[in-house]
Amino acid sequence: MFKANPNFLLREVAGEAVLVPVGEAGIFENSVISLNETCRFLWQLFQEPRTLEDVIAEARKEYSDPDGEMEQGIYDFIREYLKYGLLKEE
Predict the structure, then answer these.
(1) Mind listing the pLDDT tens digit for each residue in 9-33?
(2) Distance of alpha carbon 88 from the chain centroid
(3) pTM score, two decimals?
């Protein structure tokens, strides 16, 4: 199960979704992270602990996947966000 790191808050800045570090934010201490629409959707799902399979199922309800790349994209999102401490494994 994976969950969003509570040290990052989703905010709207000039119509753009960004993650703002609060508390212990490591390398992102003095920066914000811009999210595209898909990353924002995934970030919001991970506000509660979720499995990879659960997130894929939710994403399929929201987005079409004609090229069959969604699963790999979600896997890459999780891997990168874990690497930088934005997601935590529970």
Answers:
(1) 999 988 999 998 887 656 666 678 8
(2) 11
(3) 0.87
